[in-house]
């Protein structure tokens, strides 16, 4: 087959002549063909160049290519023989090179291919009328039926309300799952609606009993386990969904944490945000805060069930919101081994969740030892209060609890009468909050598997410390965790109490979620700061608010007495004796502590290496994956619009190593002229404006200056020091390029027509106080080779 392809390429290839030049443009269907380039052949040494023909490179040869038709999702490319153009040969892009279209779509897994029988092939179909493939490999006919190529035949794929399937000749359905860009066959879970696919738990996972037992040992053994926050969401899987939790079971996670909120009709559901925009409304824009973003508490459960959950790239999935009961029943049906932490932030809901666990445990008593209720310690300041609450509602008194002590909780508890919390014999401790921690950390066994203390500042109450460097930056390590090395009433004091009582200490490691699992721009840009609209945030340090808006930074959430947020630093977590660490990226944490011998290898025998596609800033900081150096991108004028006649299509900002002035010209001629429209943008810090951008030439030698030049247009400068404020800009979600050098005199960068170059108009950049379409710059990311 390979030899036959080589022979065909040699037969149809075109000789390269010195009379012509070839320059590359992008293809017209990049949803399917990615960044596969199309060569355009033009005469050399002429002012006006007409495109004579188009080519692709295959096996080192230049081969003629054409668009067979425009249908469905766009252009379908095929190579052909110019001497006999009747026959065409479809091609596809594998991410690196052009290849002849394979007999089976690259979006079909081997597992699905082997499941296809001849009766599934479409027998009466005119393939010449099918559209080009979309980004899932699906083609459409005139009636919008979808097909995929398998074994040189086409199989019809039907898109139901919640999943794809193939209908067999006998009427049975072969259900499919799209995972990592490929279709796999899957069996449906026998539940009402049949929305989610069943995942088998790995046979090598430690069972729940072993995990439960380990919780009782990790403090004495000084080991660490991790808790996966919101389940295993990924590029195609929504957070806090059945699919995310099932993937966690399959990945052998020792524990999962999820969130419980209440709907309008008083139904406890699994959901993180108080508003639904980010997770349920595809038209909602978190950066602009536009579109529908209703409070979850104003929605009935039935209304919420009609809205698919969105994956991290904000595409609808087959999952919908689930209730606590649905989670627990699916957990049992899946034989999920992971321990479940249900975090309840609404006080009135805490005991109700405990009662639900009790009721579900009538069918499976092991749930009492597998599900933990997590809540603010201020709601139940002592373990006896918790047990009393369980008795009052008729819940099992052995329901496990994970109380969380934060500075805000301590403030609330300390406002209670001194008699509200009993004083331990022989050691009355400093205050109510400290006594609350004492009684919780003294509770019997795994009824309280761990006590979590929120501590952000490495100087939060430890007396004797030593400043220690780490791969994530320096921190102040306490000399010991004894109570006499802490300031009474401080977070450090409470940690010392937990450690003295031998209870596992829980902590939380934040990981920026604005870029998590995204495939668009994840570095080099800034996003809005909802805490301070006069500043912006580096996208790599940005977190979604729980009302779905973008964004806040960890600095924005510091209390007056907190100088830093050190929680990301794993060496710091180890130094304060953390045993149970909750995070979105537990893989990086598992690998870090496994290498140092601190991980509980009974609970986590085979840590997973963090996936690069997660875009985890923690994985970058620990050097598991390279930290992106900003973004290489094209700045397209008119917000990505086009002017075919005067400007010859879309226009881009180009660098200029000769006269140092940036200019605007047709984007498609970048490979034909000795200038580049692939500029680099990075983020630096500005005291007044927070995170700001610097825009560099392609060779990294110059950066754009917002200062008007002698002839009124902007220039590039070689002084790119971060302190040089004339190089500071904001590129905003509204496509505006704001000039920060002008201070409060708000100005934006626009372009205007400057002249003609090779018969095509070009433009120059200048400042304006009245931005319009000529000051609108769409940022198109360029994938680095």
UniProtKB/TrEMBL annotation:
Record GO terms (molecular function): glycerophosphodiester phosphodiesterase activity
Classification via Pfam families: GDPD
Gene Ontology BP, a term: phospholipid metabolic process
GO CC annotation: plasma membrane
Limits of the GP-PDE domain: 224-347
Coiled coil (UniProt feature): none
Protein name: GP-PDE domain-containing protein
Record organism: Erwinia tracheiphila
